[in-house]
User: Fold these one by one.
Assistant:
Number 1:
Amino acid sequence: MPAIQLTPAQRKEKRSDAHHLDPVVMIGSDGLTPAVLKEVDAALKAHGLIKVRIFSDDRANRELVFASLSDDLSAAPIQHIGKLLVLWRPMPDKEDAERKDNKLSPRVVKIVKFSKSGNHRPQVNKLRILGNERVAQGGEIKRARRRLTSVKKSAQD
């Protein structure tokens, strides 16, 4: 798989985005192993733009690793400064898993009750609400009712 080619303006933008990042993957004395490739691939899938630190003193070896990483993982080589490499690959779209039953899952709701006099701290309660329940006025939990529709509308359907 060939590396992604970017224009200089695009590379400049990615360099500025990567400035504050810390290295996600570190390559030690063993060099570029399949485990390192797998880790860099996972980091690119998760983050898109990553920094890689190489603990090798040989500059030619670091350039070879940079080129092979970008070619093997079809990523764009953004920057190589010292022992830091910056790689970018567009993040894959995350497919939203549609639920078949269309029911709401349980969730945690935080209910805050303020004191009647403003001198005390508010009481905070975390409650687990099921899909068919709702929080009513005053923090009560009630079962959600089906919405009533008119007879005429249901007859049209």
Number 2:
Amino acid sequence: MPPKSDINVRSSQCFMPRWVTGWAVIGSLICIWDATYVLTRPRSMAKGDLFHIFYPYAKYITVDPLYGNLQNAFVIAQSWMNYVEVTLTLFSVILYHFLGRRNSGCLLLLIASVMTWSKTVVYFIHDYFERPLHPQDLPIKIETWEYLCLFIIPSSFWIILPCACIWSIGRQIIKILNSSNDKIKSK
């Protein structure tokens, strides 16, 4: 059995599960690609010199016309927020895994996950209310299955996984804070 002081140190440290780290890194790379597509338009669009990097978006903009609209400030703003979230997320992984600042890394990832989750929910709400207002902006008529497979399902990962991160890490932070409060009260 480890010494008592060792148990107290471990119980006061947040644990970042492997799947959370994996999601943080992979999700960040996808967000960098996505934000870069938006912020380099029209160069990243068909006939642009960067199109070879972003060719899947040629199909995606048929289901999400906001990505094809060069003047849409909402998409531009959410892309800049992607960079902020990615910076926080990757810094949280560095803090946790490379600098040994486990609690700081977990707290920063919790903050970034809340940002990612809320931004994605706002994007869904915006799409729900905006799409019927501008049916003429849809480049072609899309099928329901295309909308589900190319927009709803992939975008849902940015709601489900950040929510799971919030749950996993948030519970630990609350437990650590409650434990600290109990220690203070017992003194």
Number 3:
Amino acid sequence: MKIIRGTLAFLLVLGAASAARAQTPAEPPNPLTLIKALKCSFPAATSAVWKEGAPQPQTKTQDMRFEITSIDVGDATAEFTGTAGRAYVTAVLSGWSLYFVESAVGQLNVTTVFSQEASPKKLKAVHSRHGYLQMQVGRFVAEPSVSQNYGECEVVQ
């Protein structure tokens, strides 16, 4: 009798847990997995320069535009085309954000596209640049170059 009660109690708990799991709504599919191309624009930016060792932020408006094409999150690849030409970048899907990473000697650029619309068919985005090449010419000493650009990327069909 004890074994039957224990077994029944176990089955009731197991059934309740299964029912609770069945009622939990599934997460919607991530739309970023389907994106193959983006046209991005960044009308606002903040950069910093160091004066006497202290960073001095500077905010400005601008007309920065570029395209990201041939996006393949499965292979982690994409093609970036901007004013400086074309570059192959790494595409990383993490959660509800899609990252494009480009690195070169002394330079790292990261574009983040969020799965949240700024306006219809345009997703919020941020483009960050970080660079430093150590050099000195006469009295000129190179400083790190950093900027964060704010805008949106239009999904291209």
